[in-house]
Each structure stands twice: as C-alpha cells, then as structure tokens.
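Annotated sample (chain length 337).
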Amino acid sequence: MEGLQEALLTWYRENPRPLPWRGEKDPYRILVAEVLLQQTRTQQAIPYYHRFLARFPSLRALRQAPLEEVLKAWQGVGYYRRALHLHRLAQEVEALPQSYAQLLKLPGLGPYTAAAVASLAFGERVAVVDGNVRRVLSRLLAWENPSPQRLWRLAQDLMPPGEAPGEWNQALMDLGATVCLPRRPLCSWCPVAAFCQGRADPGRYPGARKRKVREEAWAALVLWGREGVYLEELAGRFPGLYGVPLMPPEDLPAKAKAFGVEPRFAGEVRHVLTHRRLWVRVYVAPWEGPPSVGLKDPGEKPLPKLMEKVLRQAQAFLAHEGILPFSHAKAHGVKPF
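Output written by the structure step:
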C-alpha cells in the first residue's frame, strides 16, 4: 500500500492538471467547482466556473441575488437543480460548515460533493469517490460492479496518513481522468500499473452500470409576433425557468384553441436528461398577443437547453418558409434561436 501511495502522489505532483480551482482553499469556490463538475465535463465547466464566480464571488453575493439571476448565470450548464440547490444553500448558512457530516446536511450536497469540500477546503480525512475514482479502484482490485459502500471503504483505507487528504483525492481523480480512461486506458503510462490486478483486462472493470432510460413525447408551441416570442414560466422538471408552452402532444389542440391559433408542424428535437430521452415535436403559429405575459424583461429570463433547441428548430423552419428572419432573436435571450 505504501508503494502505491508514494507512486501515485509522486506522479500527481509532477503532472497536476492546470485547473483554475486547483490549489484553491476558499470553500465556496471549491463548492462551486465541485457542483459544476457533477455531470459536466471538466473543460466545459471551466468557463462557467469563471462566469459564475465573476457574478457571485461569495456565498453572501449568491444569497443576496434573486433566483432568476442565478439561473440565468447557470444557463448553458444544464441540470438547473444544481443551481437551485446552491441558491437555497446560500439562504441557509452564512458560512460553509467545516465537517463532512455537517456538509451532508446542506441542500443538494451528496457524499461526493461534501467529501470534496471537506477534504480540499478543510483538510478532513474523507475519501472522494466519483466516476473516475470508481474506475481506478475497481481496476486496481479487479472488482466487477462493486457497491458504493465497498468502494468508499477501500478509498478511505487507501488514504495515506500524514498527507493532505485533498491532494490524495485529486491524485486519484486525475489518474482516472487522464490515464485510467474508460476506453483505451493508458496502462503503459500508469504510475500504479505494477499494483493493478485488472491490468490484463481493464475493460472488464468495473463493469457497465445499466441505466434505464425512459422515453417521453412532448409538444412545444412557439408563438411568434412582431415584438418577439411568447414565453412563460415553466413547471415540472424546469422550475424557475422560462420557455414556450410545453405539453403532452394530446394537449396541443386545446392549448392552440386557448391561444386562438392554428399551429404548423416545424420539426422535432431530441433532448437527453439523466434518465430520460425527450422527443419534442415543435409547432409554430403567428401571435398577436404580448411576447411574454407578466414578464418585464424576457431577455434576462433563464432558458433551459431544451428551449434553445426548440427555438432554433422554429427559426430554421420559419427561415426556410420565408416567414420570419427572427432578426429580434438576441432581444429574447437566445443567441441565436
């Protein structure tokens, strides 16, 4: 175990990834980085990390900001519940607690995020197990489909005494992100290859985790007029966000009748969520009413990625038909539709 620990730490100290939050000790900034890294690739997260902290540089600034402004700053990242939880967390505490157990009690913080903040910001000896660490440890011990509890116990036991726990956790995560890759791992470059029991057949470990993906059908109604596009506050899985009316396909006739329009089919878009695949049929219709009922400034409203896809599809259809160039697109927060 000591040989493995020394080999991995030596490699990490010579090859750390140049990430903007690397070496950061401010718990709030670490929290933002780790929340972003959930379900977001590292290179994609970096510009959003800078943008979010430029607008909300402290927990206090986040606490004082309206939720809509926070969601707007999060636009493009996806998984808006992470931003909702961050904002809710800021309302509950003036400073982040310094222990893993207390961090776990905060909104939206699971074992991974709580352990990352506790170890990186406060030096608590608690292991971080993300997808990269799961793969590294499973291959090291040649474990197929180990339980989360078993992996966490192993990760906890592997932490070297007397070393910074945050550094060790980052070393394991970096190894999985740059060397112990899901496909075609770079075993000849691996600093701990001599200790790896799964090296002969790394693709076998940890085994694929089967996820049931549910398919859903929806209809989106894009109402366009001279002043812009009609937007409304969304519900369901998009709380706090705005978009065009979204409904089950069988509800479209009643919705069109309520608006007094006869929509035309403009195409279909696909949108993938964590455990769902959405197929959205896009319909367009001219609209004489106000572009956004009850909204003072539609251009500042946060739109989910799904709505950006829907509006782009509508734009493509209308441009092809020569109906509307959508020259006013930027005024309504979509660049372009």
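Annotation: The beta strands are 214-225, 228-229, 232-233, 242-243, 246-247, 264-272, 276-286.
Annotation: The domain at 214-332 is CATH 3.90.79.10 (Nucleoside Triphosphate Pyrophosphohydrolase).
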